[in-house]
């Protein structure tokens, strides 16, 4: 940082597009309202974290902060329940489905945006129309199919059963198509003239250019599958194949309402998602902005 | 050249098209077929019953209640999250510093696992030892029953869903707002328009695509509300006297509690038709084109 920063006056007179406005009453008011909103929004979080640190004796005393914080709830959740197994199952399911969605949805989005072929619009509309099919409608035939094939009882089959509905998503196809449409054709044409294969053009030229889109698709897919509840609840009978939401939800029912444990389990369940979000925050927001919900 | 493109395109689309066919379209047709049978997974015989399941549906009071509740959730939730999301996005656009921090904090509920959020909510709104009632008493307002009251449970559940969706709404609206050229506002200011006028004449119409997107996708998701409802009351699914039951939860209970797959399929077909009709209606009547 050896270059001198331009003086603020100089910026203003030079017609900077976004001059720094002085703090005025409306802006202060905006800050105040936003802060109140944040306090209300984050209160449930804080409550969850702080309750998870309370001992059993302290649980129902309504003070906000624990008097003698303890990690005992965490110890119990990690050692005395199948939490770690469920956590691993969820990571596996969310990880594989996210990788699959990123690969296939970008390939479909790219094809629909950059190739000209008969049936193109029909295929796009058909894929998009699946967004209107309620999950409940699909779940029953899926269940009948999986039961007939006796799939969900043992290791590879059980994981495949949980994952298969999420391997591709219509929303992702829509998102990726929007992005690839903004790529200039000349770029792809140049690579084509250089003798690159069609898959190589997609993989090495087009895909790296839409990283923000991939990041936002990744977080939404990961979140969706990390939180998936209805289908894993239905398809999995054996406790060792449960995913985190199902395992913890049923654990609530089986163990009675052990608030301390539940709050500790909830706090632990938030962590991976917050990490993914923290890493990709910029790209996620940029991704949504660039999708440009322009209709 | 074109033939080469066509071939490459179909090679790229082959696996995905097979997926959408097998995992989305065939099950849809299968559900339609199942709805015409008395298909109970526990019974030997699965007789064809024609439209009997649908006839049963029209006389089913529990279905009527679930449908009414689902409509209520949608009518409360969609406008609430759009209004709150837009308000916060506009405020965030007003301030200078800390914008990223505020945005991230508002986004936090959206990345919270739904099951976890539901538990916290259960605790917060507990009639005996919930902090919300403690706060109400402090304000000299009598404590409420919230999730254990047949009249308040639905609104409390809706509040949870709105709280969770708000972060996404805000980011969506920030994206929409950033696409509006600043010069429009400057021109309006020169013409002497005040803030309210600028909002209704510029912001609102130019935000139309974002709002349509929010209304359509929001409605579709509220019509399928399930996870929050189940987890807010795992022992008493659907809340006191079925006051929070949704169509999705009712389908789940019929299909996987009583294994009446045929009847449950008939309900899913009706739900599908409702979603289809509402979506087409919304797209037809909400979409505006502004040529500026």
TrEMBL record, chain A:
Stored SUPFAM superfamilies: MetI-like
Predominant localisation class: membrane
Protein's cellular compartments: Cell membrane
Keywords: Cell membrane, Membrane, Sugar transport, Transmembrane, Transmembrane helix, Transport
Pfam families attached to this UniProt entry: BPD_transp_1 (PF00528)
Disordered: annotated span: 1-21
Topology within the bilayer: Multi-pass membrane protein
Membrane-spanning intervals of the chain: 28-50, 83-110, 122-145, 157-180, 259-280
Annotated Basic and acidic residues bias: 8-19
Coiled-coil ranges per UniProt: none
ABC transmembrane type-1 domain ranges (all copies): 87-280
Keyword Transit peptide in annotation: no
InterPro entries (alphabetical): MetI-like, MetI-like_sf
Similarity comment text for this entry: Belongs to the binding-protein-dependent transport system permease family.
Name of the molecule in the record: Multiple sugar transport system permease protein
TrEMBL record, chain B:
GO biological process, one term: transmembrane transport
UniProtKB keywords: Cell membrane, Membrane, Sugar transport, Transmembrane, Transmembrane helix, Transport
GO-annotated cellular components: plasma membrane
Transmembrane segments: 9-27, 71-92, 104-124, 206-225, 263-286
Positions of the ABC transmembrane type-1 domain: 67-282
A Pfam family of this chain: BPD_transp_1
Gene3D superfamilies associated with the record: MetI-like
UniProt keyword Membrane present: yes
Chief place where the protein resides: membrane
Name of the featured protein: Multiple sugar transport system permease protein
Cited InterPro entries: ABC_transporter_permease, MetI-like, MetI-like_sf
Domain of life from the UniProt record: Bacteria
Family designation: Belongs to the binding-protein-dependent transport system permease family.
Topology within the bilayer: Multi-pass membrane protein
Organism, scientific name: Deinococcus radiopugnans ATCC 19172
Compartment(s) of residence: Cell membrane
């Amino acid at each position: 940082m050896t270059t001198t920063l331009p003086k603020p006056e100089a910026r203003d007179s030079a017609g900077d597009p976004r001059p720094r406005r002085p703090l005025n009453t409306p802006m202060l008011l905006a800050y105040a309202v936003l802060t109140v909103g944040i306090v209300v929004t984050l209160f449930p979080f804080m409550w969850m974290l702080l309750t998870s640190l309370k001992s059993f004796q302290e649980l129902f005393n309504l003070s906000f902060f624990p008097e003698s914080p303890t990690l005992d709830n965490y110890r119990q959740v990690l050692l005395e329940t199948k939490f770690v197994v469920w956590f691993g199952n969820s990571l596996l399911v969310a990880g594989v489905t996210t990788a699959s969605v990123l690969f296939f949805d970008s390939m479909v989005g790219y094809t629909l945006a950059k190739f000209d072929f008969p049936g193109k619009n029909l295929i796009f509309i058909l894929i998009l129309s699946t967004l209107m099919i309620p999950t409940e409608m699909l779940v029953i035939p899926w269940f009948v199919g999986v039961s007939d094939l006796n799939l969900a009882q043992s290791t590879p089959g059980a994981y495949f059963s949980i994952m298969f509905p999420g391997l591709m998503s219509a929303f992702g196809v829509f998102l990726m198509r929007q992005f690839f449409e903004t790529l200039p054709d000349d770029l792809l044409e140049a690579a084509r003239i250089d003798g690159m294969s069609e898959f190589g053009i997609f993989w090495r030229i087009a895909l790296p250019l839409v990283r923000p889109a991939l990041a936002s698709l990744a977080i939404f897919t990961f979140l969706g599958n990390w939180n998936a509840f209805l289908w894993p609840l239905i398809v999995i009978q054996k406790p060792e194949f449960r995913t985190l939401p199902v395992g913890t939800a049923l654990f609530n029912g089986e163990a009675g309402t052990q608030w301390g444990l539940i709050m500790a389990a909830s706090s632990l369940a938030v962590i991976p998602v917050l990490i993914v979000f923290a890493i990709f925050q910029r790209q996620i927001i940029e991704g949504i902005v660039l999708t440009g919900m322009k209709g | 050249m074109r033939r080469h493109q066509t071939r490459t395109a179909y090679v790229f689309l082959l696996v995905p098209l097979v997926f959408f066919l097998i995992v989305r379209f065939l099950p849809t047709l299968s559900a339609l077929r199942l709805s015409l049978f008395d298909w109970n997974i526990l019974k030997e015989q699965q007789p064809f019953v024609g439209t009997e399941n649908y006839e049963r549906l029209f006389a089913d009071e529990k279905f009527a209640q679930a449908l009414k509740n689902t409509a209520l959730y949608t009518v409360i939730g969609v406008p609430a999250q759009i209004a709150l999301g837009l308000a916060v996005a506009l405020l965030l656009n007003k301030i200078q510093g800390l914008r990223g921090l505020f945005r991230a904090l508002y986004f936090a509920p959206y990345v919270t696992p739904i099951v976890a959020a539901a538990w916290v909510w259960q605790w917060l709104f507990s009639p005996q030892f919930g902090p919300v009632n403690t706060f109400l008493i402090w304000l000299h307002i009598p404590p409420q029953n919230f999730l254990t009251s047949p009249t308040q449970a639905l609104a409390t559940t809706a509040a949870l869903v709105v709280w969770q969706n708000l972060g996404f709404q805000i980011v969506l609206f920030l994206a929409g707002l950033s696409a509006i050229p600043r010069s429009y506002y400057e021109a309006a200011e020169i013409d002497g328009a005040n803030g309210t006028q600028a909002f209704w004449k510029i912001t609102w119409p130019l935000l139309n695509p974002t709002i349509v997107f929010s209304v359509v996708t929001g409605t579709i998701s509220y019509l399928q509300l399930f996870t929050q409802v189940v987890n807010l009351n795992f022992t008493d699914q659907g809340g006191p006297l079925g006051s929070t039951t949704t169509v999705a939860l009712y389908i789940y209970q019929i299909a996987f509690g009583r294994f009446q797959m045929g009847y449950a399929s008939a309900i899913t077909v009706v739900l599908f038709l409702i979603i289809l009709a509402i979506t087409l209606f919304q797209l037809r009547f909400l979409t505006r084109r502004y040529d500026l």
